[in-house]
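Field log, afternoon session.

UNIT: design team B
ACTIVITY: writing a sequence onto a fixed backbone
BACKBONE:
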């Protein structure tokens, strides 16, 4: 028999610590649950010889499992939200965490989600808390998510925290989906316009050049310019594409550096329409994250620290770092956010009122909704501008080609008539 020290939570959510004697860890966990407790941490106090035996057995078992284990399934961030939704559906019915994970083990069909569930179940059965088990996934799960779940476990409100967290993640996914959807149509228009240009330059113009050369006569300047452009692109086009590819790869590698990312992100913020879209998206993310963290009991300083990690634009993140420092020094949240110059005065006033009345979380959510609407309208406007620009360019080029062809026909006809 082995001595075990454990920490657990009773039905009222109070954390208790004690010791027990059991044959192994599984037996210890069973005894703890039979007492109506939810285990948080279980530590074994075995002799060195026992540990050596256990360690040797663990190593041999690990070697065997590696030999028999199938191909490793890669777990990404996109798999976390569906798994949490499946887990919450069972957990909200009153099942313990380990029991909910055990049931999910046989229900989940997606390989990545099954891998998440398997690792979590093993960690929880070994006595770790749910948040500590999630922390083992490293960069796949954000620190803010782990901290929120940990706070929910300590306060006994894990179900409510999971519900808010899932809603927040779904809002984020919906926002990204809107951005992608808004850019699909102008992207198709640009592709079609580019295809039309290539067809006229490389398909139509060489044939017309052969026809005009056989007929003789002086071609108008516009026709000569179009034919010259087609010849230039046919000969130098591959070199231009190769040079463009080198520049693109070099710029991407430079963007991966901290200085390059900061400079390019600042440049993006200065672009018309695009800069506004970035500001709207980042402000929405900032206010949503702050509201979620503060609502679930995370301290203000820690909330700002975790929110800073979620910001995608390096220039905005740098400005928000100064805001976090001011909050740490005791400056009011509304005054600190005002220094970023991202939000209009009416939004700052809304946050200030919420701060003074003790309702800061609803104020953050209200500002988030306002900027979400601004982002949707801005995306619609940006999509329209790109689409109209592409269509205008395509129609202008086609008109230019038609004018060049008609001018050449009249010029050749006049030469033949003489």
């Amino acid at each position: 028999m082995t001595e075990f020290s454990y920490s657990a939570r009773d039905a009222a959510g109070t954390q208790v610590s004690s010791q027990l004697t059991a044959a192994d860890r599984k037996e210890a966990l069973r005894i703890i649950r039979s007492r109506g407790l939810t285990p948080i941490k279980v530590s074994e106090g075995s002799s060195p010889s026992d540990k050596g035996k256990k360690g040797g057995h663990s190593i041999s078992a690990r070697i065997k499992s590696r030999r028999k284990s199938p191909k490793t399934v890669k777990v990404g961030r996109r798999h976390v939200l569906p798994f949490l939704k499946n887990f919450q559906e069972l957990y909200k019915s009153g099942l313990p965490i380990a029991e909910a994970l055990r049931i999910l083990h046989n229900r989940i069909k997606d390989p990545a989600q099954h891998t998440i569930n398997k690792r979590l179940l093993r960690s929880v059965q070994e006595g770790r808390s749910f948040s500590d088990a999630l922390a083992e996934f490293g960069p796949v799960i954000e620190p803010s998510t782990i901290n929120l779940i940990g706070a929910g476990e300590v306060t006994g409100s894990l179900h409510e925290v999971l519900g808010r967290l899932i809603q927040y993640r779904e809002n984020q996914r919906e926002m990204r989906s809107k951005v992608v959807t808004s850019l699909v149509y102008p992207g198709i228009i640009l592709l079609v316009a580019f295809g039309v240009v290539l067809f006229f330059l490389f398909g139509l113009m060489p044939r017309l050049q052969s026809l005009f050369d056989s007929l003789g006569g002086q071609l108008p300047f516009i026709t000569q310019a179009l034919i010259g452009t087609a010849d230039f692109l046919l000969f130098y086009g591959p070199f231009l594409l190769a040079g463009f590819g080198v520049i693109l790869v070099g710029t991407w590698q430079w963007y991966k550096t901290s200085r390059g990312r900061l400079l390019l992100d600042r440049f993006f913020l200065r672009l018309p329409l695009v800069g506004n879209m970035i500001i709207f998206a980042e402000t929405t993310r900032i206010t949503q994250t702050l509201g979620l963290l503060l609502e679930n009991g995370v301290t203000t300083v820690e909330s700002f620290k975790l929110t800073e990690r979620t910001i995608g634009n390096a220039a905005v993140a740098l400005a928000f770092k100064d805001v976090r420092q001011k909050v740490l020094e005791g400056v009011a949240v509304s005054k600190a956010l005002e220094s970023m110059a991202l939000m209009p005065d009416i939004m700052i006033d809304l946050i200030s009122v919420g701060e003074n009345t003790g309702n800061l979380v609803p104020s953050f959510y209200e500002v988030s909704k306002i900027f979400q609407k601004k982002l949707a309208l801005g995306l619609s406007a940006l999509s329209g501008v790109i689409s109209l620009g592409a269509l205008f360019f395509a129609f202008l080029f086609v008109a230019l080609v038609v004018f060049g062809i008609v001018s050449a026909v009249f010029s050749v006809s006049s030469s033949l008539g003489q």
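LOG NOTE: The longest helix spans residues 158-215.
NEXT ACTIVITY: expression trials, pending approval
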